[in-house]
Every structure is written in C-alpha cells, then in structure tokens.
Amino acid sequence: MAYILQVDFQMNGPFGDEMAEAFTELAKSINEEEGFIYKIWTESPETSEAGGIYLFETKETAQNYLTMHTKRLAGFGITDINAKIFAINTKLTEITNGPLSK
C-alpha cells in the first residue's frame, strides 16, 4: 500500500521560478530516495509557507524520508515542521483519477 507524506513549514522564499532554480538539485536528489514515487511541491508566498505532498511505496519509507528531511531542514534553520503520514484509500483515489504511480 502506498502512503502520502504531507510536509509544510514557514519559509521566507524563494518562491516560483526562483525556488525552482534554487532547488533543482535537491529535487533531483529526492528522486533517488528509497521508496519514493513522486512529490508535488507546494508554496504560498502570501503566508511564507512551503512544503510538499509526497507519495512513497510504504509507510516505513515515508517515515525514513521524513526523519532524514527533518534533519536536512534543521540544517537550513527550519525547525517548526508540520508533517503527517496517511494511508491511501486506493479504490476511491482511482475513481477520482488520483495519481498513484510514476
């Protein structure tokens, strides 16, 4: 069963194209994480928030990534992180065209 990892935190930028340019190498490295399927990057310049919605193969790989990512964010001075891991109801997600694979 696949699992969603939802992460968000306060960030003062960059956003938009500047964020894409600044985090391209990070985005590429995420593709190499064990059990990783995809990430949807989230940002809100109006509220100074950023984060993402990730899909992982298992709850364990989602938790392992969250542990590593929390440490990485702390290295950037980001420590107030909101994170949740959710199981996916595959049958309902398929009905509503939710992407469940690469």
From TrEMBL:
Keywords from the UniProt entry: Monooxygenase, Oxidoreductase
Alphabetized GO MF terms: monooxygenase activity
Transmembrane segments: none
Matching InterPro entries: Dimeric_a/b-barrel (IPR011008), YdhR (IPR014910)
Methyltransferase among keywords: no
A matching Pfam family: ydhR
NCBIfam families membership: PRK11118.1 (NF008333)
Protein's name according to its UniProt entry: Monooxygenase
Organism of origin: Lysinibacillus piscis
Lineage: Bacteria, Bacillati, Bacillota, Bacilli, Bacillales
